[in-house]
Write a structure and sequence with these properties.
The structure holds two protein chains of two kinds.
Chain A: E1 3-8, H1 12-23, E2 28-34, H2 37-47, E3 51-55, H3 63-73, E4 78-82, H4 86-98, E5 102-105, H5 108-113, H6 115-131, H7 133-149, H8 170-173, E6 176-181, H9 185-193, E7 204-208, H10 212-225, E8 229-232, E9 243-246, E10 251-258, E11 261-268, H11 279-290, E12 294-298, H12 307-315, E13 319-323, H13 333-339, E14 345-347, H14 349-359
Parallel strand pairs in A: 1-2, 1-3, 3-4, 4-5, 6-7, 6-12, 7-9, 8-9, 12-13, 13-14
Antiparallel strand pairs in A: 10-11
Chain B: H1 7-33, H2 38-57, H3 61-78, H4 86-107, H5 117-128, H6 135-144, H7 148-194, H8 200-211, H9 221-228, H10 232-245, H11 247-254, H12 261-284, H13 294-321, H14 324-347, E1 349-351, H15 353-356, H16 359-370, E2 374-379, E3 384-386, H17 387-408, H18 412-417, E4 424-433, E5 436-443, H19 450-459, H20 465-470, H21 473-477, H22 500-510, E6 514-520, E7 524-532, E8 537-545, E9 548-553, E10 557-562, E11 567-571, E12 574-579, E13 582-588, H23 589-593, E14 608-614, E15 617-623, E16 625-633, E17 647-652, E18 658-662, H24 664-671
Parallel strand pairs in B: 2-4, 9-18, 13-15
Antiparallel strand pairs in B: 1-3, 4-5, 5-7, 6-7, 8-9, 8-16, 10-14, 11-12, 12-13, 14-15, 17-18
Helix pairs in contact in B: 1-2, 1-4, 1-16, 2-3, 3-4, 3-5, 4-5, 8-11, 8-12, 9-12, 13-14, 16-17, 17-22
Classes of the chains: A alpha/beta, B alpha+beta.
Chain lengths: ~350, ~675
Amino acid sequence: MQVKVLVVDDSRFYRNRLCEILASDPNILIVGTADNGREGVEKTLSLKPDVITMDIEMPIMDGISAVREIMQKRPTPILMLSSLTAEGAQSTLDALDAGAVDFLLKRLDKLTYKKAEFSGAICGKIRALGGSSVHFRKQALANVTAEIRSSPRRANGDRQAKSLERGEPLSEKFRIIVIGASTGGPVAVQSILSALPSNYAVPILVVQHMPASFTGSFAHRLDALSKLGIKEAEDGDVLAAGKVYVAPGGRQLVLVEKGGRPLVKIRDSYENEQYKPSVDITYKSVAELYGKQALAIILTGMGSDGRDGAAFLKKSGSVVWAQDENTCIVFGMPHAVINAGLADRVLPIAEIAQQLALGG
Amino acid sequence: MPFEADNEILQDFLIEAGEILEKLGEQLVELEHSPTDRELLNAVFRGFHTVKGGAGFLNIIPLVEVCHRAEDVFNILRQGQRVIDGDLMDVVLKVTDIVNSMMDSVRDGEEPEPADAALLARLTDLAEVQATNTDNDKLADAGLSDQPQKRRDAEKDTVEEQFEELLGVQGFSAVEGQSQSNSADEVAAKSGKANDEITDEEFEALLDQLQGGANTGSNNSEKAIESKAVPPENSQHEAIPSGANSESPIKNAVNPETSNTSVAGEKNSEAKKAVIAKDQSAQAHAETSVRVDTKRLDDIMNLVGELVLVRNRLETLKLNMGNDEVAQAVSNLDVVTSDLQSAVMKTRMQPIKKVFGRFPRVVRDLSRALNKEIDLELVGEETDLDKNLVEALADPLVHLVRNSVDHAIELPEARLAAGKKRVGVITLSARQEGDHILLTIKDDGAGMNADKLRNKAIENGLLDPESASRLDERECYNLIFMPGFSTKAEISDISGRGVGMDVVKTRITQLNGNIEIDSKEGVGTEIKIKLPLTLAIVPTLMVVVGEQIFAIPLANVNEIIQFESVRKNVVDGQAVAMVREHPLPLYYLRNWLLRDVSSDAVSDDNSYIVVIKIGVSHIACVVDHLISQEEVVIKPLGALLHGLPGLAGATITGDGRIAIILDMPSLISRYGGRIK
């Protein structure tokens, strides 16, 4: 079954290039194109695509407003194509807030030189999102249903979860929480952090797959939405309770001990490291420093980053929670951790937030 | 090198960027009038953004550099962190000029020169001086205060790597995608089971029900599709009732044990219908336009021209045959050919906006340089005309508009003194009139004084006092189209070298058009240009001189008179024909066009005078016979004849003979000596 894609971009030039790339993938069918957000919304309703690629800067209606309207009228997985600027990061995060599930940097020069890679990236994302399209829409419906009936349907994904004693403060067991996420992560991370009180008892590390130019904006935005103090982690930061450190994009966040206190160390990434920042690398470093006193949470995302790190954490006696399939945008990283038998609990995102808020 | 890029892609870029730049010119001038218009600022921002993107794709670095900076400037502007002033506008307009010239280089297959470093620096200033006010930079500065520069560089690199890496990750995503879709299906299956009887399709249908707005109840799929065409304002409305209506389907979804089996079935079939409709509309959406090389259009036009000739030939034969059936068939062919001809012509049409679009900028720059205040009004920008005409018109029109700004519109003070509004108005309009396009350039400036023009013409030795005194006012105005005529005392940078207007005139005449000027002192001046819709087919008067047929473009023909009704005279050694008391220079075309002239071959009395109009002058040309008025297709002359003065081309007549098409202005100026 082909993934039906709607391409929304105001540049005909870019649309054509994008269509050329997408058309080369037999699993992808371009059902239409639109040159502004308004047309994008209309064609979403009339053509019912499985996935939409969306530009941000467009006349008549911009990409973010279009995402918002599409999520209301016919929720569809949307892949944002963003530019590599601080401005682009802001808009992209806005779009993710509005309901877009993922983004890809719109690097046109890459199209010339690394066409194969770019094609792989975009087609891969679209296929993945296309696969989750029906799931995605059900979730959206479930949310609407929940709102209308005002009693949330219990997610049924936590069958294999061992139960943790209710009321036992997490902070007595754990001295650090470390969250790893990729596709769909920004919104998930945000929903967790915005639920936590300002006097949270432990420091929190966030490793979200994101380009370098994005993590600063991301941290800034989280800070504005949360009661906690949130910043992009910097080399030499001393971990403090109630503070959140977002791993900077393009580099790696590890912890070192200095004078008995854990310090943040930001190092450049090595050639062979696939993800920058990498959840595995930070998990492993946390395992070494905190032993069994860490709580690791693996959230929605493509791939399997976090699985190896989680293995280290488990070995040293720490606890690992994974986001459940129903609430994941892409059930990849949590799936990998669960499959490897490393997850102590599998929880819907809302419950993760609730548990952390209660426990802290 | 950018130009190893696929030519298709390059063309694609050039076309889009060209359109954007054209619009940019207008938008920038508009912006000067309403500098805080957010929509406009956004549009300009997007313009530079898109050009930058395309240039980046093709790796045209200089273009990327300049557009990138301009984009930054407009980003600041649209966030209200800077206000447009005249200087900024000058810089930005200069940027568009540079971008335009870069595009020209690219078009010619050359790597464009990098933009002037000073200009780039200026742009950077404009974008950055106040950029420090943005929250982002504050944040960045705060966080990176130790080694900002180094860090920034590092960031740049890592961004790059990061991206590469993101790409690397995609090896997974294909696999993940697969497993994802599997797991999605699983979930679908699972949740289907969990809810017991709702299938995917029903779910889809319910979703449509819930969110699609109008397709509630028993609407069929056509209606559903129709509802998509509802204008955006309405869709808001629809969303509300659908929200209200949606309650029951949801209840059905959640409590399936209630009586909804039939409902679900209904939804099911509806969903299927929707799927069919979806496929149809997907097909209907397929590209509706293709890009065609103009060369190919020219070829088609040429072939249609051939067809027209064959049609003309058949028309002639039809008369000789007297066979009704043949006559019928030929009549049909006639109709079809005419339709085909106009259809092909339409493919070559472009809105005159392409030319008009550059004028706001021209007027803006000039009036700024001259300290004048001028509004430019454009009327009928959507009027279509032949692509070649659009291109050929650009230069003459620019000249005329510059002239209006420079000569016609007075300085604001002078205008006020004359009791006019401070701001002058130039109106540029186009409209189609039958098979012609009428262009007018009208100003509310000082107007022209006929006597001044007369004197000037005498001064410059263009006319003797006597002939000057015989010109009526209108003819005086048209003197400005004569070579060597300029009234401006000091020669300005902008116009006034006296080489312009006659060139304009010549160009318009070459396009088979004509130009006229009318003016009223103190009120303003109006210049009218009449042009045929297309250049490829010309209405002509077919005449016979000696044994040969010649075609005179109808645009040059003023009237036809029987020679016998005209008095002949000689003035100053020049033969003249007295037409309604006006002496017109008289020439025998046979003297110019035939080899062995026996001047008595046809007696004057049986021949005709064709009064040719060239600018303000009328000239009487004697031809032996008249044939008819005919639309002919211009065929270029062979290499041997090409470029001979007086010959515009050739065509094939209805009876299969070849006729030379005359270029009357050049014929007369070559052989007729000086026309008075």
